[in-house]
Here is the input.
Amino acid sequence: MKIRKELLELAESLVNYGRKQGAEEIQVAISEGTEFSLEIRNGNIEKLIEANSQSIGIKVILDHRVAQVSSSDLSKETLQHLIRTAIERAKISSPDPFSGLPELKHVELDDTKLEIYDPSLLELSPEFKIQYAKELESICLAEPKIKKSFGAGLSTYAGAYYLANSNRFLGAYRRTFFSSGITLQAGEGDNLIDEGWEESCLYRKDIPPP
Here is the structure.
């Protein structure tokens, strides 16, 4: 996943548009990502989702009055309309003296230095993820004390985030995420206990064995 210059430019252009329309302060946040989510129960796939997403959030401040709007439609016409709508909403909002944007400061947005992005996570195949969840459940059910599985789950996410505001901040970063877990039932008779386990990491090398 690459940082897309056109989305940085879009965020910056919307800030400029908002200022021209009368916003005293404006912040634009764009996110895009790829999600994989899987649930296994008794060895069978109960849910599998693989999807791409895009969204934008816009915050407008006018005389300490705040309005926020969001959309999954990134067309220019839609976003300019949202900004105008947000400005009108801000005019009738209650003032908040602490609503201003933070002052511009240098922020390190190199996701490799921040250690929050691992491109190798994107190389994990759906087959690997399915087998991982199945093996996790199988190992747990091999324990005689375990009476029932409510399902094993696994999810991965890779996303890019873009931020621009009227205090001249402009930047972007990427992030990856891996999560797995399972919920089980153990016990005898009326003394049954439901308990779950979940673990997450940002790097492929940190994925625990099932």
Observations:
- Strands lie at 25-41, 44-62, 65-71, 146-165, 170-188, 191-201.
- The chain is about 25% helix and 45% strand.
